[in-house]
Amino acid sequence: MIPELESLREQVDEELKTARTEAEFQALRIRYLGRKGLLTGLLRNIANVQPDQRPLFGKRCNELKEFVSAKIDQHLAELAVSEKEKSLRTERIDVTLPGRAVRYGSLHPITKVRDEICGIFAGLGFSIEEGPEIELDYYNFEALNIPADHPARDMHDTFYVDEKRVLRTHTSPVEIRTMQKNSPPIRIISPGKVYRRDSDISHTPMFHQIEGLLVDKGITLANLKGVLTHFLKKMFGEETAVRFRPSYFPFTEPSAEVDIRCVICGGKGCRVCKQSGWLEILGAGMTHPQVFKNVGYDPEIYSGFAFGLGLERIAMLKYGISDIRLFFEGDLRFLEQF
Amino acid sequence: MLVSLKWLRDYVDLEISPQDLAGKLTMLGLEVESIASIRPDFSGVRVARITGIKPHPNADKLLLCDIWTGDRTIPVVCGATNIKVGDVVPLALVGATLPGGLTIKKSKIRGEVSEGMLCSERELLLGQDHSGIMLLPEDLPVGEELGAALGADDTVFDISVTPNRSDCLSIIGIAREVAAATGKPVRYPDTALSENDEDINRITSVTIEAPDLCPRYLARVLKNVHIAPSPPWLRQRLEAFGLRSINNVVDVTNFVMIELGQPLHAFDFDQLAEGRIVVRRSQPGETFVSLDGKKRVLPSDAILICDGKKPVAIGGVMGGINSEVTDGTSVILLEAAYFQPSSIRHTARLLGMATDAAFRFERGIDPEGLIRAVDRAAKLIADLSGGDICKGVIDQHPGSIPVARDIVLRLKNVEGIIGASISAEKVIKILEALGMEIKEADDETLLVTPLSSRVDITQEIDLIEEIARMYGYDMIPATLPHIFAASDSSGGRRIETETMIRRVMNGSGYTEVINYSFIHPSSVDDLLLSSDDRRRNQVFISNPLTEEQSVMRTTMVYSLLKNVLKNFDWGRSDIKIFEIGRTYLWESQSKESSELNKAAFLITGRRYEERWNFDDEKSDFYDLKGCVENILDALHVPAPSYRAAAGESFLHPGKSCGIYSNEDRIGFLGEVHPDVLLRLGISAPVTVGELDLDIVTSVAIFKKGFYSIPKFPAVLRDVAFLARRDVEAKDFVAAAQQSRQELLEKVDIFDVYEGENIPDGMKSLGLRFQYRSTDRTLTDDEVNSIHSRIVESITRSLGVTIR
After folding, report:
1. Regarding beta strands A186-195 and A127-128, do their DSSP bridges make them parallel or antiparallel, or are they unpaired?
2. Is the Cβ–Cβ distance between B793 and B721 less than 8 Å?
3. Is B248:B228 a contact under the CB 8 Å cutoff?
4. What is the pLDDT of residue B100?
5. For residue A80, with 0-12 CB atoms within 10 Å meaning exposed, 13-18 middle and 19 or more buried, which class applies?
6. B399 contacts chain A (CB < 8 A)
7. How far apart are CA B514 and CA B500, in angstroms?
8. Can you list the alpha helix ranges (DSSP code H) found in A91-193?
9. Helix, strand, coil shares, percent, chain A, to 5
10. Rounded to whole angstroms, how far apart are CA atoms B800 and B803?
């Protein structure tokens, strides 16, 4: 039987040399190693072998079986590698075609600026308060030390609803509402819509402000400068020059107008800063003692400061937008840029 | 306010450049908004003297003049008749340019050489007179450029004066600020005058019948006044301020108002019936023709200045045409009064007359400046018009005027508010530089009397502001306050809701818009809202800019539909937008307005962009519903459901739903009703939705735990049912859940089909049932037995069959 084994080995060697494809190798495996395969058949006939030669025969058979099996595995593995290499060589997609995700929507630039500002003040421990937009004359004016027939009402072109209601002209009434509800310390900001009766390239009848209020014992104008300088440097960059100058608001005293070095011209003077080199960014001041009295705080014990700024103005500076009306026209060609 | 630096120099020395001065004033709170240079609109014109005049040999109406230019004599042909030898006149030399662009050339006029041109006022735009050559003052230096010689060059600041600083609505007030900041003294104008012997009390009288509105009224009378054009210096002053010159009397009253801040009025005394003044309140409906020729219907309680019979001026606002100073006027009654500020403001606003006088009265004039102003004006009018000032002033003072009160300043409060350590000496120096008087001083307090013109300074904090202002805001350190715990925030939760909605909508490709809160009142009709819909209770604006923006919106949907319309115009047909904002309702019961926080969404056109690898599909109800589901899921809104027939008049009745969390209605969603689209002129189907964020926030679960990851595999079973069309998907899910079978983890709808092979009026619905146990791997037998029970219960309860 051993010679048969030898000729089978030669035969396998020959066939392994000529096989090329995966299918041919699989066929070889079945032909020799399958249940009815040639090698399997040989082993099944071990009964015909001389008893003393059986161990040797068995051993050779198994050796041959393992040899064939290993050879086929090896060829298959090589084939797989070359197949993979071939497909890596030949498969190509056009990577410059557009992808498949739905286009991400845009946030309104006012939302973006508002979130950024709220984030900076959140870092300083300010929390968010809100108030009504249809506001009582009392909160919008009276409680803020602006009685009827006060010339400061000229600073606000007011929309009226009826005798005692207005569309709020600023977010400052939230200061009063907050102080009426809470006792000091107070540390809030309040973003929201405000309304003034004005419409041109630099005014819309509705726009957005953020109000801020901080009340505690021992708060000073120096603190106002510290907090707002911190904010402006975070917002416009650490190198931003900031200027505080005296101004007037009936509900703060001393009052300040806060400017930053013009972000357009760097201070040389341009159309945006009206040649002054500075941009007016926010109004601020120490809360007026009368306002504290109006909400039942004792100005002998507490002091504080308030500030307000227009979001459109910040967004316009940040993005270089020259027409404020664009914010509210719903024009997707504009909004999708943000 | 426009401030001429040349004028300012009359009262204070300016040793710094205009730019530096502007910076200083701005840092004092007097913001200089612009700086303008004024130069005459001509060049090459000199001061010259006429040294000879002879008739033109070839023309009767022309003269041949010899003109001394300062370095030579030249011949000039001239047609004027008002000149004589020795006159000083403006000479435009060859090469000169006149206003309007005329360039002077050497010429021959009727055979005689002319090397220049003598000019009239009007030709130089220095005045209106064109009757002859402008005659210059004798003492002007011959040979000098005319502009420089007349002092027509000037720098004008436009200063934004805040409403509290009425004292700075005058040149003298600005001069005081400059003086305080630079340490220079203020030179007050000369008010010394000479009177004749005629006692004013024998000529006229003043009766104040409304002392509350007019607590004080002063009058002076001037006789033999010659009304004439004002001299160039006066005209230049007024023009620098932005006023037109009228005549020497009216101009003086304006000049003194700008100079000292006290508005004045001059009456033609001969037009005053009974030669006297009566001050009273107006009667309702009374009419009056003001100086500008307009007939005014006066509000009640306006201040009327009357003569013995009729009104002659609206006090503090404008004079009347019936007593105006004209060329024929020779006797003048000069008025200087204190009118109650809020009354003037009220009248001026109701009449729409924002005059310079009213502006000053309503902000508060110097209560102690009346006499000085009336004397100053009388002196100037006498100087300019040759008039005689009658003896004495009538000074009726029946009412009370708030005057400067002493204020206690506690030095510790200076540092307490400002946050900088400023010495007592420095504080005193600052206050004194501002003209305040320190009456008493000890280690802790000062007793301060403010200047009478500083009507804004009435309490301690006003003094502290002055100290901070003069000390310099830039000198105050910038320090952060100590940090303490944040106060509670009422806005917090809802803002989290909004942030989540923005995230979901952005991810789904929607762009945020912000629309005006006010819309057209007919929007509720366009949305077909029924007569009892509470969204018809709009809040109206009583003084809107346009009808388009005259009511506060009661739904966001209308604004979004308008966005669609405009974007269609701009060439966009695929639109995905959302807005987060408020709607506003008038609660007719409580007579209060209420504000609701909303989010609204809209989609129209293609579902995806037009792209090589996207199907070209139209969006529909389910696109927006998917977004809403994601939002409610992200916010963990419990038991959300979508119930057919939203009940919204503006939505398609068969393609819309109300959105609920348990039994709370939190919004709606649906295709817009074709009638609404038609009314608005929108030509494509649109789906909209709105969520009430106040309710969503109240039901959302912000603190949520997690489920552990299942340890055992799920077993799936798919079934297709055949059902009538009106059986809803939710009925199947509900029926499956009704089995209360704990091992049924989830039911999904994986297929909906109508059409071929399905009978009319029927649909096929494919459901996928997912079974899982938390403590073992389920066997097929186990699942099959539960599953067949559930399927059977569905077919039974819904009357459907298995396909």
Report:
1. parallel
2. no
3. yes
4. 80
5. exposed
6. no
7. 17
8. 109-123, 137-140, 173-181
9. 45, 20, 35
10. 9
At residue B694, what are phi and psi to the nearest 5 degrees?
-65, -45
Tell me the residue ranges of DSSP E strands in B534-573: 551-552
Q: Chain A contacts of B567, Cβ < 8 Å?
A: 330-332
- What is this structure's pTM? 0.84
Q: Which amino acid is at B497?
A: T
CATH class of A109-335: alpha beta
Return the closest-CA partner of residue B389 out of B238, B159, B225, B634. B225
Angle ∠(B525,B527,B531) on CA atoms, nearest 5: 55
Q: How far apart are CA B660 and CA B680, in angstroms?
A: 29
User: Residues B25-64: pLDDT tens digits?
Assistant: 999 999 999 898 887 788 889 999 999 999 888 888 888 9
> How would you list the strands of the sheet with B318-319, edge to edge?
B206-208, B277-281, B303-306, B311-314, B318-319
* Nearest partner of A298 among A196, A179, A159, A204, judged by Cα: A179
Say whether the peptide bond before residue A254 is cis (omega within 30 degrees of 0). Answer: yes
**Cα angle at A137 between B349 and B545, to 5 degrees?**
55
Q: Tens digit of pLDDT for each residue in B700-742?
A: 988 778 888 999 999 999 999 999 998 999 999 888 888 778 8
Angle between helices B248-260 and B232-241 (to 10 degrees): 50
* Most B CBs within 10 Å, among A134, A166, A275, to test the B interface: A134
* A238 close to B24: Cβ distance less than 8 angstroms: no
Element (H, E) at A32: helix A22-33
Domain definitions of chain A by residue range: 2-90, 109-335
Three-class DSSP category at B733: helix
Give the closest of A155, A197, A216 to B484, CB-based: A216
- Longest pairwise C-alpha distance within chain B: 138
Token couple for B664: 């709370």
Amino acid at A92: R
B581 reaches A (C-beta below 8 A)? yes
Written as one letter, the residue type at A51 is P
Average pLDDT, chain A: 91
Angle at B288 (CA atoms; ends B283, B294), nearest 5 degrees: 145
- Residue partners of B154: CB distance under 8 A and separation at least 6: B4, B5, B6, B37, B38, B236, B240
- Count of pairs with CB atoms under 8 A, one residue in A, one in B: 250
CA angle B245, B250, B251 (to 5 degrees): 45
> Residue A54 is which amino acid?
R
Task: Find which of A158, A177, A276 to mutate to test the B interface (most B CBs within 10 Å of its CB).
Answer: A276
